[in-house]
DNA sequence: GTGGTCTAGACCACC
DNA sequence: GTGGTCTAGACCACC
């Protein structure tokens, strides 16, 4: 299911968050679908339960999942109205990454193609219910 | 010259790297232009010399600047032919960020506008010699 | 009658307690009025009977309702003379919340308006017999 | 400095957050003042460092303090512009608490006095630099 | 020395 | 069985 790099500089809990976010964004994990329990994932990945829990807690804080004590953790329905701060932060991240991409020679049409590709992958994920 | 945020969670040396990268990407620092010495910058920013040193070392490792023993550090000429690995990594980063942006509701035209804006800023920087 | 949020972090039994307290405080449930039986409410809300039981038990402990074996649970008549400990505790809670409210910029007139609004809602509830 | 109740239902990290918030709100801890280090407080309170860190992390998330790895944790300058969500949540909390206070017989003038008292305590704290 | 991450476990409330 | 809290400890990057 997941592949984690324990040697990476990036903390394990962040790697986990990225993987799960990706699966949500690409529609592989559907809204209200149950995620593996903290213990199960801990055993599967041979990662400490506390580390899994930290990832889940942060994902909940960011609005990607919701957790219920005694029940489990579930994929949150996608946000309808992102906050102004969230939009501003994303804009900043896009501007910075574009600056680097242009430096490497990426053209407007390269960017458009990649955006289109991402859109299509998301559509595929969502329609494959 | 620089403004560092000591309250930020981001390490000082990373903030410094980002600022210098930005000035290179936007053409404010030109190829082969000399950067301030570690000592000068350390005094100007009231930041530990080791921290400046680390930022310069990392920037050199990433190919943004080069150092000449006894002379100083200089902006590297922009790479004409980025490696295949670099292009693949950038493509990956763009795909991931687009996935998040789409999740937040950014449209194709939003993306195009931001790309255009970045392009123009870079042009302005380079032509202002 | 009730709407429970299964996605909330707040335990179901606490949500239930809050709803019932609210209905008592706003006069929607009158003194000595009978509450639905544990079984009935359990079926209506599709919530485990143990959970309903726990909410009723806690509400009784706090003095909001009373139970008669074999008859059912009833709204307690509003306390005419709250204990000194209760008053002191409420005073403490108000002081703490005001400190936070002031920190967020709530003015004296904001506070007065909210108090007035609460008063009017309670009056409306009680007079609608 | 602090008194924690290990037997309480309220988690230790929340008790700690409340105490620190209180000291910030009443001006006992001033903006940019350094908090005791995680290790120091852990030893003083004989509470696990992880628990202290959890309290600090949450306080940072709520905007009361800021932490710098390698430096320490500090009181954040008071927020100038609280978010709309924050204001809405506080309004809700005030309405609920007023409903309970009215039930216990607190009058408008009681509420006003308590608000006034809180204001004065904050002023005293801030001016006693 | 500082905060941040992580392990290996225990115990708790909730359902 | 589930997530949430907590301990006792180790190691890391940063300054």
TrEMBL record, chains A, B, C, D:
InterPro entries, alphabetized: Tscrpt_reg_HTH_GntR, WH-like_DNA-bd_sf, WH_DNA-bd_sf
Coiled coil: none
Residue ranges of domain HTH gntR-type in the record: 10-78
Highest taxon, organism lineage: Bacteria
Pfam families: GntR
GO molecular function, one term: DNA binding
UniProtKB keywords: DNA-binding, Transcription, Transcription regulation
Gene3D superfamilies: Winged helix-like DNA-binding domain superfamily/Winged helix DNA-binding domain
PANTHER family documented for this protein: HTH-TYPE TRANSCRIPTIONAL REPRESSOR YTRA
Full protein name: GntR family transcriptional regulator
